[in-house]
């Protein structure tokens, strides 16, 4: 029996994949998977580390001696608002694979709007040979909101594709070759933006942030004609009724959404049927279980060697 207490795992996605990878993860200490009914009433008093994604509400009462909390994804809003949250480090999941997948999705969506993919799809279904003369990427300014690890990688990949790219964050970030804006310069940033890419964390300030007032400040009359909104950050940062009305009335020329206020998106939600709107089911950058568990193992090893943890969340800021 290992003298090291097992890692507590309470992850509400891909239960089969999690259970499979847990068979070989944390070999030096083992794990307790709360998705397994056999662990429903297990004593968690000796647990020191917890890997969580949308955990049970009573988790911190059941596991009162935690030393570190690891998020099962890049976001931590699903943990920070919980009752009884202990004052211990919370570590975000940062992984090359997750970052790359997110940038792939962002670049794909920007290119689909640039090249009129929705119109092409419509013409194909109607068996119409209808050519679309698209602008070049260099004629379009993509404004990326949120310049953390995901945002900076997306900026770099969009620049490779030839887009003019600018960036916004609450406090200014210095990125070589990219014009950046801070909170006080939001309107200036929006006025320059043809395609707005949302990669912001969910905080009280960003809840309901992408609304009709914001959409009306985006650049009009650019190479795309009407601005486009792309969001892969957090669903509760957007006001979906405003997206619907903005697309219908032409304030927005289209949108790409991977996150939603309520998930899964209801089958009768008007977003499904909007013209030039692409919907993906929150799978732009899914946490890959092998990489996630390796990340936690590495951080626990650092912690137990007395080295500082990486990717620790500022709970006051919310990310």
Automatic annotation (TrEMBL):
Keyword Membrane: no
Oxidoreductase as UniProt keyword: yes
UniProt KW keywords: NAD, Oxidoreductase
Domain D-isomer specific 2-hydroxyacid dehydrogenase NAD-binding: 108-282
Residues making up the signal peptide according to the UniProt record: none
Cited InterPro entries: D-isomer_DH_NAD-bd, NAD(P)-bd_dom_sf
Pfam family membership, one: 2-Hacid_dh_C
PANTHER family noted in UniProt: 2-HACID_DH_C DOMAIN-CONTAINING PROTEIN, D-ISOMER SPECIFIC 2-HYDROXYACID DEHYDROGENASE NAD-BINDING DOMAIN-CONTAINING PROTEIN
Name of this protein: Glyoxylate/hydroxypyruvate reductase A
Lineage of source species: Bacteria, Pseudomonadati, Pseudomonadota, Alphaproteobacteria, Hyphomicrobiales
